[in-house]
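Lab notebook, page 48
Experiment: co-folding of the full assembly
Goal: obtain a model of how the components sit together before planning crosslinking
Operator: M.T.
Materials (sequences as entered):
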Amino acid sequence: MKIKSSNNNTVVIDVRDFKLAHIFECGQCFRFNPVGENEYIGTALDRTLRISQRGSEVTFHSVSEREFYDVWYGYFDLDRDYSAIKRRLSRNDALLKATEYGEGIRILNQDLWETVVSFIISASNNIPRIKGIIERLCRAFGRPHTYEGNVYYSFPTASALARLNTDDLSPIRAGFRDKYIIDAARRFANGSLNRDYLTGLGVSDAKRELMTVYGIGSKVADCILLFGLHKTEAYPVDVWIKRVTEHFFFGGREVSRGEISKFAREAFGELGGYAQQYLFFYARENKIGLD
DNA sequence: CACCAGGCAAGCC
DNA sequence: GGCTTGCATGGT
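Observation: model returned without errors.
Model output:
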């Protein structure tokens, strides 16, 4: 991986295990959208980014080399060797197919608070509507900023949302999730939950803490552990993962979510979260397990 | 019209 | 522990 700065873009060449469509369509992130062939624009970490790719060359538009290293290098998890991860997972037959199919997936290092709210909103919901709710939330309560001449909105802070009541959130049309968002906001705004505290805990303790928030159950907690804290043992079991795990590893037999989690711990260990992302992308794109 | 969407909480056994 | 039901909203 090498850097080639030109005018005010940062171009990274020889990037491996990186494909924008895989990164942004594997369900970990809701605020990046395609704006062209191999090009996405989105807002994260209080900034907006347009990013495009041609082969192994990735362009971070209107981004200085300094901002690239300070912000996006970490966000895109560029310090991690995904070839090694895929190699280890590929010893398993189903994962060989899934990692080949989603070869460009990376697990982003997203803002913890944004991840908490995004996955609370994801409960019993579909991805287009999850995105809509999040966008309305950001437009109403987030900080506006300009990027390449257009206005974008940051994800609202916990304290901005902690002041609200459910009536304030009704234009967001989050449905029954509005009270969950506010409870989470109060827990993060008053500091009783924060990144340093949760990072310092083991996976199961961090999960237990997260589940004390109204609206965070087992699946949402696992998503937060994986996408917000990069605790990669987490294997979030949603309907798709339940189906695809049953399809590949239980001969299509229906088993409980507890069985699925136990299987993932034993089969994938600390790579469970990576396995989950490859399997989720593979299952959704190919409609695995729907028969 | 019923049924479902990356679940959760509450209530039951 | 595991199972059932109601829950807002929007799409088919």
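Interpretation: The longest strand of chain A covers residues 47-54.
Next step: discuss with group before ordering constructs.
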